[in-house]
Design goal:
Elements lengths: L17 H9 L4 H6 L8 E4 L1 H7 L7 H15 L9 H10 L4 E8 L2 E13 L1 H9 L22 E9 L7 H15 L5 E6 L2 H9 L3 E8 L2 E9 L10
Parallel strand pairs: 4-5
Antiparallel strand pairs: 1-2, 2-3, 3-4, 5-7, 6-7
Helix pairs in contact: 4-5
């Protein structure tokens, strides 16, 4: 939970053009600096959803685009492989479709808040879930796992879009808090099934803790990636990671 009158997105610009966004990501305050920063553990790290950032802002409520840009910066700082990083347009689409499923993590560094990780999940069509469960080899890009409008029937299927934190904080209290907060966010969301794509041993351990099982492999950017799925009764919200 954010402190009162605290704006964690104060130093995040509201950029629109692809060129401006790329220049900002590559700037001296961009993702490379974050990857080189030494962070204190847990006590200096905060997390929030877009709604929580709006409620805590000391001035005008931050735009969704600023939340997306901060999440994008965290994404680029987390992943060394450029093929694993998200683009602004795609991230904006999935966050706008289900903003309550995305939680951003930031660390305080010299009176500034720096994005260091995020978790995200969004609804997918039952047909998409079935494809990931029964024939994941037919998926040739993660972008095929498109977000859908969530229903109120508690029979939703969800896709774990991301769970990541910068390398410096992996294996710390901060990373454990990130997984715990994700578990709580998922537990508060009625669902029938959960799916994920795993690209690292750490990701594999996390999704298996949530009860997901390997269903096969997809292809993304020419690389094979492991698909995981889990289904539960409507009343059970433990599946997922």
């Amino acid at each position: 939970m954010l402190p009162p009158a605290f704006d964690p997105l104060e130093h995040i610009p509201d950029l629109d053009s692809r060129e401006e966004i790329l220049d900002w990501l590559e700037s001296g305050e961009g993702y490379r600096k974050i990857r080189e920063t030494r962070f204190l553990d847990a006590g200096e790290v905060v997390s929030f959803t877009w709604a929580e950032a709006q409620a805590a802002s000391r001035v005008a409520a931050p735009s969704l685009n600023r939340f997306v840009l901060a999440t994008l910066l965290a994404d680029w700082a987390c992943y060394a492989n450029a093929a694993d990083r998200e683009g602004h347009a795609h991230l904006q689409t999935v966050v706008a479709a289900f903003p309550q499923g995305f939680r951003l993590w930031m660390a305080r560094v010299r009176e500034r808040c720096v994005p260091v990780g995020y978790t995200g999940f969004h609804p997918i069509a039952k047909a998409t879930f079935s494809l990931m469960r029964d024939a994941p080899e037919r998926i040739t890009s993660r972008t095929q796992i498109a977000s859908e409008q969530a229903s109120t029937s508690a029979h939703n299927y969800y896709y774990l879009f991301n769970i990541g934190i910068v390398k410096q904080l992996q294996g710390t209290d901060a990373s454990r808090a990130l997984v715990k907060a994700l578990a709580m966010d998922l537990a508060s969301t009625p669902k029938r099934g959960l799916a994920a794509i795993v690209i690292s041993p750490d990701g594999k351990r996390v999704v298996e803790r949530f009860g997901l099982r390997q269903s096969g492999c997809i292809t993304h950017a020419g690389q094979r990636e492991i698909a995981y799925v889990g289904e539960s009764d409507v009343e059970e919200n433990s599946c997922r990671a």
